[in-house]
Amino acid sequence: MSRPSFDHATEAFDFIDRLENLPSPQEVMKETANSFSLFGFENFIITGIPNPKERFEQAVLLKKWPAGWFETYAREDYVRVDPVIRLCRNTVQPFEWSEAPYDREREPRAAEVMDRATDFRMKDGFCLPIHGINGYEACFSMSGVDLDLSSRTKPALHLMAMYAFERTRQLLNPLPCRGADLLTPREREALMWAAAGKSAADTGDILGITERTVTAHIASACQKLDATNKTQAVARAMQYKLIRI
Fold it and tell me: CDD domains, alphabetically (predicted)?
């Protein structure tokens, strides 16, 4: 799929602006479905990764999944054998479903999950693992049959998915308001340039400081925002209105 005239960064920031004004998870779901369809995605789910004593259904925050697939996935307890979920537990980096390893011969149930998903037009997918400071594990997983996944689109999808997760969580379980002075001016600048797609080296050149100093500012911002990575810190800083793009 190729859409050369589509401005992925602009769509990502417009999506964030639209989500900020939505008052309910249901409206977030509709807007997320509409926006992600521009990249070819037909289905998505935002869910916690259940512990051994927790049912999959109890962990789901928001979903647009075919009814038959959700019922099947829950009934068969596929979350315990899903290669995508397994990889989510072991990485903080977004990945394509095809990158989640499993052995068809030795793991027939894992193969079954992936094969049956295709019956519901969930042939390929992209997944964002989410790891909280306190051990919370979740993911934003999206799928379709004709996806726009490239080095240009993936950063936009990463930020959009992270913000959708943060906005959904905020609506379901509001976090305390963070003061404008939570981050230093340099930390805010570092996150703003990160949101614009600049590397630490690029940001250092722009601000007249070293790459190492930029990295330190971002690490400090992550700690203050209880974020496990730069993209989550950017999403939370935007949600708390600590930075504007």
Answer: LuxR_C_like
